[in-house]
Design a protein that fits this description.
One of its GO terms (cellular component) is plasma membrane. Helix 7 crosses helix 8 and helix 13 crosses helix 20. This protein has 20 helices and five strands. With 438 residues, it is mainly alpha-helical. Helix content is 68%, strand content 5%. It folds into two domains: 195 residues, Preprotein translocase SecY subunit (Orthogonal Bundle), CATH 1.10.3370; 200 residues, Orthogonal Bundle (Preprotein translocase SecY subunit), CATH 1.10.3370.10. A three-stranded antiparallel beta sheet has the order 4-1-5. It starts with a helix and ends in a 9-residue tail after the last helix. The protein is globular, with a radius of gyration of 24 Å.
Length: 438
Amino acid sequence: MLRAFVRAFRTPDLRNKLLFTIFILTIFRLGSVIPAPGIDNAAIKQCLQGVQAGDSAGLYSLINLFSGGALLQLAVFALGIMPYITASIILNLLTVVIPRLETLKKEGQAGQAKITQYTRYLTVALAVLQSTSIIAMARTGQLFQNACVPSSYMPQQDPLTLITMVFVMTGGTCIIMWFGELITERGVGNGMSLLIFTQIVAMFPSSMMRIWEEQGPWVFAIIVVAGLILMAGVVFIEQAQRRIPVQYAKRMVGRRMYGGSSTYIPLKVNQAGVIPVIFASSLLYLPQLVIGLLGNDTNNSVVNFLSTYFNPNGTHPVYMVTFFLLIVGFAFFYVAITFNPAEVADNMKKYGGFIPGIRPGRPTAEYLDYVLTRLTTPGALYLGVIALLPMLALGASGAAGNFPFGGTSILIMVGVGLDTVKQIESHLQQRNYEGFLR
């Protein structure tokens, strides 16, 4: 593997792609530590020292994860890539509902470019909303669970300064979106995925150091071993797929014979990826939003109920069961809207393809739907178990809040890592070099 890395840097064009990707990621990390205008960086650091990272984010812990901790530092890139992810998910869901978007999706590259433009506009709108809500929470002290005085880290709270902060954070999101597109076009790997990967990995050193200091070397060693085993299991499942053989009949076009080849349709066990976990996490933050709107009134029965059963740490069994069921439900929902067996069957029939032993047309669609359902069931259960495993195994040790091998983070790291390695390997194999995976 090390030899493959050396060969990758010896290839001029691949070396340029790798260096360009590293350069963009370096600038991206710099923007994650530069404070926004009107923020006292020294006061923010003092505030974070007295607050647990797992509890301080509260409602916005998922955004804080994807921003590499930049959210709690109120940095220029505080929102991270989360607005773009949310916009992409919304557009994918609306494609099934709105006929105009479905037509654009079928128009090929031109239609996809139009959908990408709509995604950018929606990203900017979401960035304005999220930055406004984050600044409002920081101004009232709710972002840090009232552990710090807002005037200490936001000495200037006049309207002009607050509007400037909103514009800066929104502009930071636009720059991040541009960085992702640059990496995709001129670098190696998917740009948006690599940005998320970088931010998650950036939180590893501080999280591991905190576990070492608070829990001791024995707990630290157990957590490292558990994380490695969990990562190996995720790699095994993510690589698993069901290959459905497809045979194409021979046909004459003019004087030439076409077809007669055989291929397969790869259906992954985890066809939905990490999207169901993000959906479920976002939906379970709504109770905390209600608590924030109603205030921490202990006499309010609704606030007491939500605080007890749907706390952001996810320690209550009701929270865990709800989280698990939402992940399973969203997994089936997302697979249903992204993979259409009837459309795949029609395309196969149009080009003379068929599954051996299955009649073309409707029987093929029913067979694909049957196989996909059987694959999605263990895949959805796997996602739910991976998301809950850190809570169940490490909640008793008190390190779950600092545990870096969480369900969402481990799925993203493994998925992006495997995809990037495969792309580098394909570049090497084009030049008759051995890749990373022999």
